[in-house]
Each structure stands twice: as C-alpha cells, then as structure tokens.
Amino acid sequence: MGRVGQKLPLSSLFMLLLVLSSTWCPLPVHGWFEIYFDLITVYVMNDLAPYTTLNLHCKSKDDDLGEHKLAHGQNFNWTFHINFWQTTLYWCSMWWYDSNGQVVQGTFDIYKARRDYARKCRSQCCWFIRKDGLYLGVYKGDAKLMFHWPK
Ligand SMILES: *[C@@H]1O[C@H](CO)[C@@H](O)[C@H](O)[C@H]1NC(C)=O
C-alpha cells in the first residue's frame, strides 16, 4: 500500500501545479496540501516598459539561480519549500536602463519566509518590477509597492 498510496497525493499536486502554471501568475490555492507541502513559487515579472530588458540574479545561501534577462512581460519563477527553521531567504539583484540610458539597480529580499508567510505568500508570490519600484501581489491589480529603487 505504502508506495502507491504515497505517490497519489504528490502526483495530483503536480497535476494541479501544471494546470495552475498555464497562467503566469496562478490564483492562490488554499487547501489541505498547503499545510503539509508548503510549496512556494515566486514569480518575478518584468513590468517595466516595452522594449526594456530586466536583468535579474536571484540567490539564496545554498542556491544560485543564475543570471536572467527578461523581456517586457516575461517572468522568472522558482519553487521551493520553506526550511525547517523558517529562515528561507532569497534575494535578487536587478538592473535595467531607463530612457536616459542610466542604469537603475537594486538588491532586494524577494522571499523571506516569516515576513512573506505573514503576507499570505504561501503558495504564490508575484513580484511586478516597475519603473517606480517592486510591487508584490497575488493579482496584478492588487499588487502593492514594497520597494523603491535606491536613489
Ligand atoms: C516560469 O519560468 C519559465 C522560464 O524559466 C517560463 O517558461 C514559464 O512560462 C514560467 N511560468 C509561468 C507560469 O509563467
């Protein structure tokens, strides 16, 4: 029984994630599995301006997610579990050129377990990177400005 019985919930979770990932920022799901699996996906979306590339480099203490160039409207996303001590921290350096050709850059704590769990980023955290700063939300419309670009 053990083997098959244990595989079922995982594969249905996988199917659910496949279905959900058909939109770039899926709706939050609140269900029993959340409590047991705590599988979190962070999306970082280039919402700057047409033809503006966002350069992104995200890391945690153990994980270097690499450098990525995002075209306008593209996102970078990754999935993880909160660690046992709830100290999971991902930070991202990002930079882009404004219309004057000046580089705009900053490094931000993009996922911090305790902070973001309290903000209800329990399955999806969606960041919209805009000209005036970094917005966090579950939906595009409800995203709130969390960080300004450093001056
Ligand atoms: C997640 O990122 C990958 C590229 O790393 C992209 O192909 C995929 O569409 C993204 N997922 C969603 C739901 O947008």
From TrEMBL:
Q: Which organism is it from?
A: Macleaya cordata (Five-seeded plume-poppy)
Per the record, the similarity remark reads: Belongs to the plant self-incompatibility (S1) protein family.
What is its subcellular localisation?
Secreted
Q: How is this protein named in the record?
A: S-protein homolog
Q: For this UniProt entry, which residues form the secretion signal?
A: 1-31
Q: Which UniProt keywords apply?
A: Secreted, Self-incompatibility, Signal
Q: Does the keyword Secreted apply?
A: yes
Single GO BP term? rejection of self pollen
Q: Spell out the GO cellular component terms annotated for this protein, sorted alphabetically and separated by semicolons.
A: extracellular region
| Entry keyword annotation includes Secreted | yes
Q: Which Pfam families match?
A: Self-incomp_S1
